[in-house]
Design goal:
Layout (H helix, E strand, L loop, with lengths): L9 H10 L21 E6 L3 H16 L4 E6 L2 H9 L5 E5 L3 H10 L3 E18 H6 L25 E5 L8 H7 L4 E5 L3 H13 L5 E6 L9 E4 L21 E9 H6 L1 H9 L4 H12 L5 H11 L1 H8 L1
Parallel strand pairs: 1-2, 1-3, 5-6, 5-7
Antiparallel strand pairs: 3-9, 4-7, 4-8, 4-9
């Protein structure tokens, strides 16, 4: 499954300056705070999409201001993040969209990573068109009719085919296989990052142009650019087991947290807090919108949310 991942907003630039690019091999790097003598430190993995940044921003704020920890954040791609977590380079991943191979290797077999519980947010990936286009052409919301609109969705980058816009090449997607296995007259085109993909979709929407895009919920952009999902062949358990043969929709995924096994056992109040950290899609979108749209620094967005939701986060500290 996803992600995604999964660079994106104004805050990502600051993260990149601190931690390096998302493609870095973090298994060979250590937190600046790692092994600091006597220090109460936590290192959190920050995925490149803004929802994950919102999780980390709030967790970091509370760890620092309520529990007295020093927090380091490291931006790293999805699969390398599991390697880093297993080796103790980071202590926690707060939003995972499902990586069965890594779960089997590190949770079940090596037991170097421990489940951290539900995040409380349910994720779903799909193909979306802008609602203004779906209203004008209602049948576009069934994948069987997509070829009918391939010419309208063609771009300079799609090589004479319709364009299916994806985000970062580092995101784990089924889209190339889906296009091939469903025999669609489309070309997957990578924007390069979530931020670049958002910029393109906003520009299309501003000009009221049609587009077809890989996208996901929860995501704050739906509030600015209403979109309608295209129905793909129904998801059935195991239909995506072979990445080359996928011909079904993406599943609905309760997003999970994972902790380094040693940290889960001996991480004290920080580990206990992160296990209890659980909020809603609405909460995450509220913070994401402040970071991405209102251009608040993650810490500012986190403080604003924390100030208005004491009854929610107090439970995480008990």
């Amino acid at each position: 499954m996803r992600m995604r991942t999964t660079t994106a907003v104004a805050s990502a630039a600051a993260l990149t300056l601190l931690t390096g690019c998302g493609a870095a091999d973090m298994t060979k790097q250590a937190s600046p705070f790692a092994n600091a003598q006597g220090a109460k430190t936590v290192t959190l993995s920050v995925q490149s999409w803004v929802g994950a940044q919102a999780n980390v921003a709030v967790a970091q704020y509370l760890l620092e201001h309520e529990l007295g920890y020093r927090v380091d954040t490291v931006q790293v791609d999805e699969v390398p993040a599991w390697d880093a977590l297993s080796q103790g380079r980071v202590d926690a991943i707060l939003e995972d969209w499902g990586h069965p191979e890594q779960e089997q290797r590190y949770v079940e077999d090596k037991k170097t990573i421990a489940p951290g519980g539900d995040l409380g947010v349910t994720g779903h990936i799909g193909w979306f068109v802008p609602t203004y286009f779906a209203k004008k052409h209602p049948d576009v919301t069934n994948w069987k009719n997509l070829d009918k609109y391939a010419d309208l969705l063609r771009t300079a980058e799609s090589g004479g085919k319709g364009q299916l816009l994806d985000g970062s090449p580092s995101y784990v997607t089924n889209d190339k296989a889906l296009v091939k296995n469903l025999d669609l007259d489309y070309q997957v085109v990578f924007a390069g990052s979530e931020a670049a993909q958002i910029t393109q979709m906003q520009q299309f929407a501003k000009e009221k142009k049609p587009f077809l895009s890989y996208w996901y919920t929860p995501q704050w952009l739906f509030e600015k650019v209403p979109m309608t999902e295209v129905k793909l062949p129904p998801y059935k358990e195991g239909c995506d087991a072979d990445p080359a043969k996928v011909d079904c929709a993406y599943p609905v995924t309760p997003l999970q947290k994972y902790l380094n096994a040693g940290f889960a056992k001996d991480g004290g109040k920080a580990a206990k807090f992160l296990k209890k950290f659980k909020w809603t899609t609405e909460d995450q979108n509220q913070v994401s919108l402040m970071i991405a749209e209102q251009k608040l620094r993650p810490e500012e967005a986190a403080k604003k949310w924390v100030d208005g939701h004491e009854s929610v986060w107090k439970k995480w500290l008990s």
